[in-house]
Design goal:
By secondary structure, the chain is mainly α. 67% of the residues lie in helices and 4% in strands. The strands form two sheets. Strands 2-3-4-1-5 form a five-stranded parallel β-sheet, with helices on both faces. A two-stranded antiparallel sheet has the order 6-7. The radius of gyration is 33 Å and the shape is globular.
């Protein structure tokens, strides 16, 4: 694609070259840049990458290329890219260093979370770009192994101020969605004029005009086609007397041309190309050993192979184009392919690279082979330990195909299905699980298959969709594996709680009844108490199950938990602490769960842990901490390509601030989500948010309507219960105390069963709303006293507001000013703007003068800047902040410089003396 001379003169690519030059200029100025080049085979993506590397003077460069036959080897692409940078591993935080070392097989360890590997890669690249800009180039990204692609997508979304350029080339069309949401540059075909110039540069002799026109028309500006197809077309039809243009895709025609060129080579040269095509690493020494095994005269064959222009044999084996590799591999018949893979397996050191050796043995197998299947199973175990679940699935899938024994074949197929599920390949997992069920699975295998189908449905569709299968699996597991059965019941009941009321099928009561019928251990643990207590709540009533639940929750709070148990049981314990009105335990357990998820890198659990924690902080009136957790949950969503966490987090926090537009946006985003459609929990949560919003704004008709819908299913507890409180308040303000009576009774009954200050204080406040005279006065005072003994500042402030409003209506203006003043101060410091405005209006109605709160004099911080400033104020270092927010320490420093500028400060110490917007002050 170059005219005569250097690559600096790429023909017809001025715009693309300018975009790459701009990225380099930004990196030299300290800013990162990402670009994804997309185009068909041969369009010139690789030439553009070479141009970038040539222009990157004064920069460090690292590169990698996806190889189709390496797609099943976990982290192969990422290891290839990061290998020159591994000296910087010691500079990474320990959890990141351990994750990357385990992923690359440098040491053993627990399976690393894929996003922790992504964060480690980000930190490694950012550190490498510290002294000089780093240029990272990835070619043929469509052939990267799954986990390497995920890690690089993570990095692409988080680069900002690290002096790192990441440019990725993806062949289109590609399977799946690669690097979506990142800046893209489609690489089109050359213009007709540029196509003719390029064609003229390679066709030295006279060429019939009709042939020239046909070549230009059919190549559609594809540079590789313009360089390669003329030879074939002219050889086939030098006079131009040809039939109609071929409809075959251009990439196929190019590959066919390369195939003809491979087939025209001498036998030994052709066989050497077969071996090189089957060996994905490009290791010349390994190629030489395999060639010797096959009796190929390496030196002679290598000279002829390089003379053909199809391959270069230097330090590494490099094909002219990936299409040459695929053409060379296709040129071999099945018997030759098996022989080549057998030679490569024999030439591969079983100690240094057992997984690639096993994969070659699998390709060489002629039929069922238990020995090779067992090797693949061991490779799957190693891949699983490194976090390469997609690779493990591929090894196990092939192992199942090669297994002679039907029972063992079914077990391996089921294991492959489980690995596919963990990799997020739900359709493939379902197919493998179905295939496993065709074999003679034993009872335990069949039950595990049902469990897997349930988990697939819950993950790929919704909690409600997976619930019936989870329940069925738990029942089947009871006589086979009591421990797994209890865990499956836990997952089923959690799915039922998450889904809420369902249009049809299994529900929370059915799961609860099954839990109580299941065999009980002789000495129940806190896990058993938690599960059985919850089941009793739904079968015999709240009062029947509350004592067991409170005992279990207390045990979780008092004693430590291991990583596996904590990640499995703490999410349920946190939710139930809320439902049992045990605010202190909810606070302790939600904080512990977030810490545990962060420490272990369990990013599959961390988003839900953050939601539980930020709900707790919002109820405590600590919107400062809640806002910080929203930023973290949003960062995870951005890193994983999901918007759910950002919307649900906003749903919990924004209503308290009285911000109608952002609350409505979150509500609409969740109700439009097709995967959540039909699940009552979404209706409950969104209507609760609307009820809080409109009660704060004093729009009681709207609050009443939303609260009625939010508490339609009391079985959900949690936000359904909170919706009942909103309904009581709205009903009373609208003069409909009869509509509040049932809610007051229900809250009172639960409060007596719970016995906590939160519960009893809430019940007293609810009764006060429907009472009169001295009785109401005493109840308000009781509510304030009990809630004041808890962390519930938000509800304490609201109760003071309600009491002050009642006192003003009773013409007790002096007393009203005391309560309304306290409410206004608390709600203002919390940041509950709409409720604070209600208190301000009521205070003015008593004749009091309300001083305006001082406004910030500095330029407002962005949410990201505010979050970083708070974490600095808490004493965290840049690497610690980066790990928490999934950004590099360099990006933290970049944001911090902007914080200093906006706040007019010069040191981290000064941040700790400032009170940031929305930060709570002591009541």
């Amino acid at each position: 694609m170059t005219s005569r001379g250097s690559r600096a003169g790429l023909l017809g690519r001025q715009g693309e070259c300018q975009a790459l030059d701009n990225l380099l200029a930004e990196a030299r100025a300290g800013r990162s840049g990402v670009l994804v080049l997309r185009g068909e085979a041969g369009i010139g993506k690789t030439e553009l990458l070479k141009y970038l590397i040539e222009r990157a003077t004064g920069c460090r460069t690292v590169s990698a290329a996806g190889v189709q036959s390496e797609m099943e080897l976990s982290y192969a692409g990422l290891h290839q890219l990061c290998a020159p940078l591994l000296a910087g591993l010691d500079n990474l935080p320990e959890p990141q260093r351990d994750a990357l070392c385990t992923a690359f097989g440098l040491r053993g360890g627990a399976t690393p979370d894929r996003f922790l590997v992504g964060l480690a890669t980000l930190s490694l690249l950012a550190d490498a770009g510290g002294d000089e800009p780093l240029v990272v180039v990835v070619d043929d990204a469509q052939w990267l192994d799954h986990v390497s692609a995920q890690a690089l997508e993570f990095v692409a979304r988080r680069l900002l101020a690290e002096s790192v350029v990441l440019v990725v080339a993806v062949r289109e069309p590609s399977a799946g969605e690669l690097f979506t949401g990142t800046p893209e540059l489609p690489v089109p075909g050359l213009s007709e004029d540029d196509s003719r110039r390029l064609l003229a540069s390679v066709v030295t002799g006279p060429l019939d005009r009709r042939v020239r026109d046909r070549i230009v028309a059919e190549t559609r500006g594809n540079p590789l086609a313009l360089l390669e197809l003329p030879r074939a077309l002219i050889a086939l039809d030098p006079a131009g007397a040809f039939g109609p243009p071929e409809a075959e895709p251009l990439a196929n025609r190019l590959e066919q041309d390369f195939l003809r060129r491979v087939e025209s080579l001498p036998d030994e040269t052709r066989r050497l190309l077969f071996v090189a095509a089957a060996e994905p690493v490009g290791d010349v020494t390994l190629l030489r050993r395999a060639a010797q095994q096959l009796g190929i005269a390496m030196d002679t064959a290598a000279v002829r192979a390089e003379a053909s222009g199809l391959i270069t044999l230097g330090t590494w084996v490099r094909f002219r184009h990936p299409l040459v590799r695929s053409a060379a591999y296709r040129a071999a018949d099945p018997e030759h392919r098996r022989a080549v893979h057998k030679a490569l397996a024999d030439a591969t050191d079983a100690r240094l690279d057992p997984d690639r050796r096993a994969w070659h043995l699998a390709r060489a197998a002629t039929g069922l082979d238990e020995g090779v299947a067992a090797e693949l199973e061991r490779s799957a175990g190693r891949a699983q330990a490194r976090g390469g679940v997609a690779a493990a699935a591929a090894f196990l899938d092939r192992a199942a195909q090669l297994t002679p024994d039907p029972v063992r074949r079914g077990a391996r197929a089921l294991a492959a299905a489980q690995a596919k599920y963990q990799a997020g390949a739900f359709d493939a997992a379902r197919e493998l699980a179905d295939a496993a069920e065709l074999g003679p699975l034993d009872e335990l295998g069949a039950a595990r298959s049902t469990l897997l189908h349930g988990r697939i449905m819950a993950a790929s569709r919704s909690a409600g969709a997976g619930l019936p299968l989870l329940l069925q699996a738990a029942r089947r597991l009871e006589p086979l594996d009591a421990g797994l059965a209890r865990e499956t019941y836990r997952d089923a009941i959690y799915a039922a709680l998450t889904a809420g009321r369902l249009p049809e099928g299994s529900g929370i009561r059915e799961v609860a009844q099954a839990v109580l019928r299941a065999p009980k251990p002789a000495e129940p643990t806190r896990d058993d108490l938690l599960l059985d207590g919850l089941a009793r709540v739904y079968t015999a009533g709240y009062a029947a199950g509350a004592p067991m639940l409170l005992q279990a929750i207390g045990a979780y709070r008092a004693d430590g938990v291991s990583g596996r148990e904590g990640l499995g049981w703490l999410p349920l314990a946190c939710r139930l602490a809320h439902s049992m009105w045990d605010f202190a335990s909810w606070s302790v357990l939600s904080a512990r769960l977030v810490d545990l998820a962060r420490e272990t890198g369990a990013l599959s659990v961390l988003p839900s842990a953050l939601l539980l924690r930020l709900s707790n902080r919002a109820f405590a009136g600590d919107l400062d901490s809640a806002h910080a957790l929203v930023a973290e949950a949003t960062a995870i969503g951005e890193a994983t390509g999901s918007t759910f966490f950002a919307h649900y987090s906003a749903l919990v926090v924004e209503p308290w601030k009285g911000r109608e537009s952002t609350t409505r946006q979150a509500i609409e985003a969740l109700t439009r989500d097709s995967l959540l459609r039909g699940e009552g929990k979404v209706e409950t949560a969104t209507q609760w948010a609307a009820a809080v919003l409109y009660n704060g704004l004093g729009r009681y008709e709207e609050a009443y309507a939303a609260a009625r819908r939010g508490c339609e299913n009391p079985d959900e507890f949690g936000l359904s219960l909170q919706s009942t409180m909103e309904l009581v308040e709205a009903s009373v303000r609208l003069g409909r105390p009869e509509d509040a009576a049932e809610g007051v009774r229900w809250i009172g009954e639960m409060a007596q069963a719970s016995g906590t200050d939160w519960a009893l204080g809430t019940a007293a406040g609810a009764r006060a709303l429907v009472s009169e005279g001295p009785s109401a006065d005493a109840l308000y005072r009781e509510a304030i006293e009990r809630l004041g003994a808890t962390e519930m500042r938000m509800y304490l402030a609201r109760t003071r507001l309600l009491y002050g409003e009642w006192l003003r209506r009773e013409n007790r203006r002096v007393d009203a000013r005391v309560q309304l003043g306290a409410a206004h101060d608390m709600l203002s410091s919390i940041g509950a703007e709409a409720f604070a405005e209600r208190a301000r209006r009521e205070l003015q109605a008593t004749g009091a003068k309300v001083a305006r709160r001082p406004t910030a004099t500095h330029e407002p911080l962005t949410p990201q800047e505010e979050q970083i400033a708070r974490l600095v104020g808490d004493g965290l270092t840049n690497p610690e902040i980066g790990a928490q927010l999934f950004i590099s320490p360099h990006t933290v420093e970049w944001h911090l410089r902007k914080v200093f500028s906006k706040l007019g400060i010069t040191s981290r110490k000064e941040i700790r003396t400032l009170r940031l917007a929305g930060e709570a002050t002591p009541a």
